[in-house]
Amino acid sequence: MGVSAPGSGWPSLFEETFTRSQTPMALTDDKRRVVQVNSALARMLGYPPSRLVGRHTYDFVVGGPLLSREEWHRVIDRGMVTGDAELRRADGETMLVQFGVHPESVTGERLVLFVALAVSRWGRHFRREGGDATGELSQREHEVVEMVALGATSEEIAGALNISPNTARKHVTKSMRKLGARSRAHLVAKALGERVS
C-alpha cells in the first residue's frame, strides 16, 4: 500500500517525509494494526518492516495496550493521543519513548499516524501540557516543523537555518502551542496528519 495520491502537493510531501524521515513513524488502521512503517521505526524496534506490518502497535508495548479499544476510539476521535510508553525491541531490550498519534487526512483512507521519539534523544522536557490550537504556522515555523518531522535536532535545525539552537527550540515550542501539540512526537503527528496551512 502506498500513501501517495495521484499528483503532487501535500500527499507527495507526506509520503516523502514519512519515507525519508529519521523520526520513527507508522500508519495504522483504526484497530491499531500497522499498515505501513518507515525504516526509522523498523530500526528503532529492531525488526524488518515486513515483520511489523499487520501487527498491532500495542504488541510492542511492555504490559500491552495503554488504552482499551473504547478509550482508543474516543481519544482518536478527539485527535489527542500522546504520552510515554516502554517498548520492547526484537532483541528483548526495552526503551522509553514519547509518542504522538493523530488521525491523518492526507491519504484519503481512515488511517492513524503514529510517531515515536526515544526519550534518550529528546529528554522529557519536550513534553508539555496540551491545549487547543491557537493559530497558523509562520513560514519559518513550517520549515522547522518539517525538519523536526525529518528527525532533526534543535542543533541540526539551527545549523541548517543559520539560527541559534535556542531560537530553533523557540520555533518548536511556538509551533507546538499553535497546533495544540504536547510533545515533538505529537507535533509531527499533527502536522503530517492534517493539512496544516
Would you give an account of this structure?
Helices cover 41% and strands 18% of the residues. With 197 residues, the protein is α+β, with helices and mostly antiparallel strands. It has a 5-stranded antiparallel β-sheet. Strand 1 and strand 2 (34-37) form a beta hairpin. Helix 6 (139-149) crosses helix 8 (165-179) and helix 6 (139-149) packs across helix 9. The two termini are 26 Å apart. 36% of the residues are buried. The model is unreliable at 1-8 and 121-130 (pLDDT under 50).
Summarize the structure.
The chain is an alpha+beta fold and 197 residues long.
Can you lay out the helices and strands and say which pair or pack?
Layout: H1 10-20, E1 25-28, E2 34-37, H2 39-45, H3 49-52, H4 69-78, E3 81-88, E4 94-104, E5 111-118, H5 119-122, H6 139-149, H7 154-161, H8 165-179, H9 184-193
Antiparallel strand pairs: 1-2, 1-5, 3-4, 4-5
